[in-house]
Amino acid sequence: MIEVHDLKKTYRDRTVLDLPALSLAQGETLALAGANGSGKTTLLRLLAGTLKPTAGTVKTAKPLLYLPQKSYAFRGTVLQNVLLGTQGKKQQAMELLEKLELLPFADKKASSLSGGELQRLSVCRLLIRPCNLLLLDEPTSACDPQSATLVLQALEAYRKETGCTLVLSTHTPRVALEAAGRLLILRDGKPEADGAPQALLQSPDSDWLRAFIAGWRI
Amino acid sequence: MDALKQALHLLFSLDPELLQILGVTMRMSFFSTTISCLIGLPLGALIGTRSFRGKAFLKKLIHTLMGLPPVVAGLLVYALFTHYGPFGRFNLLFTVRVMVIAQCLLIIPVVTGLTASFMEQSTRAVIDTAKGMGLSRRRVLFLCLSESRTSLLSVVLNAFGRSIAEVGAVSIVGGNIQWKTRVMTTAIMLETNKGNFSFALALGFILLLIAFVVNVAASFVVREGHDD
């Protein structure tokens, strides 16, 4: 569940996010899109609570999990990374690693993984924990198409299992179409379009939106 | 070459004065490094990971103090601990203790500044990732320290290197008194002034040897960190 009212984030004179309202029911899925600097990461960080709003209110379901845009490998092996802060979940961790095709690396140092592998590991680290709200900042940006499919399948399975609300940002229309039932497109920190991904992509209702969608890699 | 031979002779003959000077040097460096790190590491970690009013000014002040000339630090401590100074009653002037205090004045800003810069640059990702995983505050702090231990150890070794090689402050407040406050650097300065260049060079080689051992330890620590 998410309830946002009159949310604003400004840095000195620059308003990076100005969102009058956003409401998501439990179990709903939302994809955020927009050009670089449009406010996607800011919105996710405000929802995650790692950033304080300049104005407005944010109410979210708890517990929530948040995947930052930049993946980070903690010291230790891939398996140790997944098990960090958990107890008695080794079997579940192995299954997750297998789902995301990381099992052969389970005993390898996490720092030795490639960018795409590390991103899948970061997703694994979250999916081993239960939550009511899952926030993901470009979870497939470093993945090849096959790996992206694995991530999206794992996310869908997790969402079905936990019934959590899912919000993710993306630059890929495929991710928006496959992972979300709703697409919010931001432009200079403000909502430009909000609706079903398929409908928005097929019939954009403004010149800017048409140009933006035309620029997407379909 | 003569100086190198003399250095080896001094070391292997276990010259009592040299051993005493080495002892004072190591004792002083150990205490000044330990105290500076006990204060500077947590302070630097706080400055590096928190946002607060006046942070930019505080960082500028610390960076300025990082370049504090040792003789100025020595003079300041001398003025504080001289017989007529505010702390004169403690009778600490020309003791190893006051040398440690003067060195702390020099090293605390270095440890604080380096720790703050490092924490600011590298722990953001650790904090964001760990918080995103829903880990407890204590766990996040533990991860920050654990993830930065290699760099924090480098800061400690850097502080030790600065302490052991420092001469300006310790010569002013310590007085370079034989069998009491003479350390390697002040002994080198004295022997040079006496024109005893080969002996001064011999002491220099020994100091270099200590610095080398410290550096080998540092690179070992860094390699260990990468191997984790």
Description:
The complex is a heterodimer of chains A (218) and B (228). Chain A contains eight helices and nine strands. By secondary structure, chain A is of the alpha/beta class. Among the domains of chain A are: 105 residues, Rossmann fold, CATH 3.40.50.300; 38 residues, no CATH class. In chain A, the strands form two sheets. Chain A has a six-stranded mixed sheet, sandwiched between helices. Chain A has a three-stranded antiparallel sheet with strand order 2-1-4, covered by helices on one side. In chain A, strand 1 and strand 2 form a beta hairpin. In chain A, helix 4 runs parallel beside helix 5. The two termini of chain A are 30 Å apart. The model of chain A has no long low-confidence stretch (mean pLDDT 94). With 228 residues, chain B is mostly helical. Chain B has one domain: MetI-like fold. In chain B, helix 1 crosses helix 10 and helix 4 packs parallel to helix 8. The longest helix of chain B has 37 residues. The radius of gyration of chain B is 20 Å and the shape is globular. Chain B starts with a helix and ends with a helix.
Q: Which helices and strands appear, and what pairs or packs with what?
A:
The complex is a heterodimer of chains A (218) and B (228).
Chain A: E1 2-11, E2 14-24, E3 29-34, H1 40-48, E4 55-60, E5 64-67, H2 78-83, H3 90-99, H4 115-127, E6 133-137, H5 145-162, E7 165-169, H6 173-179, E8 182-187, E9 190-195, H7 197-202, H8 207-215
Parallel strand pairs in A: 3-7, 3-8, 5-6, 6-7
Antiparallel strand pairs in A: 1-2, 1-4, 8-9
Chain B: H1 2-12, H2 16-49, H3 55-66, H4 70-81, H5 96-132, H6 137-147, H7 149-165, H8 168-174, H9 184-193, H10 197-227
Helix pairs in contact in B: 1-10, 2-5, 2-7, 3-5, 4-5, 4-8, 5-6, 5-7, 5-8, 7-10, 9-10
